[in-house]
Amino acid sequence: MSAGGLSVGGREDVLRGILFCVTAFFFFACMDALAKHLGATYHWVQLVFFRALFGFLPVLPVVWSDGGLRALRTRRPMLHLIRSTAVLVALATYFIGLQYMALAEALTLAFTSPLFVTLLSIPLLGERVGAHRLLALIAGFGGVIVIMQPGADTFRPEAFYLIVAGAAFALSSVLTRLLGRTETNGAIIFYSTLGQFLPMACVLPLFWIAPASLDDWLLFVLMGCLGGIGLQLITLAFRNAQASVLAPFEYTTLIWATLIGWFAWREWPGNHVWIGAAILVATGLYITYREGRPRQAPV
After folding, report:
1. Once rounded to an integer, what is the mean pLDDT over residues 168-186?
2. Alpha-carbon Rg of the chain, whole angstroms?
3. Closest by alpha carbon to 74, among 144, 145, 175, 170?
4. Parallel, antiparallel or unpaired: strands 2-3 and 6-7
5. Is 139 inside any structural domain?
6. Residue 179: partners with Cβ closer than 8 Å, 6 or more residues away
């Protein structure tokens, strides 16, 4: 069997894929926590710059394993440019949103990404969405409304940063599917990282704040490395298990974010966040299940 063009083996391979997936999303949660901590002092431009700069370190072995410089040859440079721009927008809006929201709450709103993936798959991939997935989409965005609580005293318009981040992440995911038909994994990750690094390097002098201590330098390095290693682990996960198998374990990042948020900032999501998160997780898993079924008609 295969998932996204990658071979998938037996039971041991699937278990290995699940382990890679859970570890990757733990690393992503830690990266998010570091971004939230550093973002209280440093501009988001600086965060994205260092995320990309040190993110190159774990990316280079992927490029090497895919054939070195030959793996970077591309026939679709504009598609890489659009995807890297989407990732840049996603990271920027996500890092900004982290400063206004609790870690778990911000991450939950970013779970809108599977909903946007389904919507974007219609015009970009030519997919058709039937009644089941349409109802799941409506329910999912209902969960977003529950979390954001428009009209309530606790409503914060800054939550829209996270919605934009979810949409931008979704666009990058759909474009990854398109690029995956002709490009290597190394090329996709490398050009995405390069597309974050170059624009931020150009404007960084305007927003530069010198790190106050060696500890902050180390945290910047760690943040970038965690993000890059997480991407590499996700690649390994999909080489060992199907997307439909891994999907439930992606949501373990909410557990990690809740625990980290509590220990670091004494943040604990309110009941409305848990209810909205349950709706988003349920709809995300349902959409993944429907997409994983053999189709003779749109579902």
Report:
1. 85
2. 19
3. 175
4. antiparallel
5. yes
6. 76, 79, 80, 83, 187, 188
Contact call for residues 98 and 39 (beta carbons, < 8 A) = yes
Q: At 3, phi and psi to the nearest 5? A: -135, 115
Scan for tokens 């398109």, then name that residue. 178
Query: What's the pLDDT tens digit per position in 49-104?
Result: 999 998 888 888 878 887 888 888 888 899 999 999 999 999 999 999 999 988 98
Q: Exposed, middle or buried, 188 (CB in 10 Å: 0-12/13-18/19+)? A: buried
299, part of any domain: no
Q: State whether residue 99 is helix, strand or coil.
A: coil
Buried b (16+ CB within 10 A) or exposed e, 127-162: eebeeebeebbeebbebbebbbbeeeeeeeeebebb
- Distance, in Å, from the CA atom of 82 to the CA atom of 188, rounded to the nearest integer, reads 12
| Cα–chain center distance at 289 | 20
List the one residue out of 173, 156, 10 whose CA is nearest residue 97.
156
297 in a domain, yes or no?
Answer: no
Q: Sign of the CA dihedral 76, 74, 291, 228?
A: negative
Quote the domain boundaries for residue 52.
2-292
Give first-to-last CA distance, the chain, whole Å.
Answer: 22
Residue with tokens 């374990």: 249
C-beta atoms surrounding 41 within 10 Å: 11
* d(C-alpha 132, C-alpha 121), whole Å: 15
Is 40 part of a structural domain of the chain? yes
Tally of structural domains, the chain? 1
Rounded CA separation 60/31 (Å): 19
pTM for the structure as a whole: 0.84
